[in-house]
Design brief:
This protein is globular. The chain has a single domain, classed as TusA-like domain (Translation Initiation Factor IF3), CATH 3.30.110.40. Strands 1-2-4-3 form a four-stranded mixed β-sheet, with helices on one face. With about 80 residues, it is of the alpha+beta class. It is about 30% helix and about 35% strand. Helix 1 links the parallel strand 1 and strand 2.
């Protein structure tokens, strides 16, 4: 298991989800991906995409304009 960071701050829908999806394809099951973004729509879009594809959103946090997701990658 390893940790990875994806900074998509400044990008608007649908790019945060598209970039998250692309990054996840490079990772192994059990890896943790932290995604940092500023698009408020991502608070709904990224967890929905993760649920559909079986990945676990472990944590969502907000500070100022930054939204952080911690996602555990599944093997499915």
């Amino acid at each position: 298991m390893s940790q990875h960071l994806l900074d998509v701050s400044g990008l608007l829908c649908p790019l945060p989800v598209i970039r998250t999806q692309a990054k996840i394809t490079e990772l192994d099951a059990g890896d943790i991906l932290e995604v940092i973004c500023t698009d408020p729509g991502a608070k709904e879009d990224i967890p929905t995409w993760c649920r559909i594809h079986g990945h676990e959103v472990m944590q969502i946090g907000e500070q100022d304009r930054l939204i952080r997701f911690q996602i555990r990658i599944s093997n499915g």
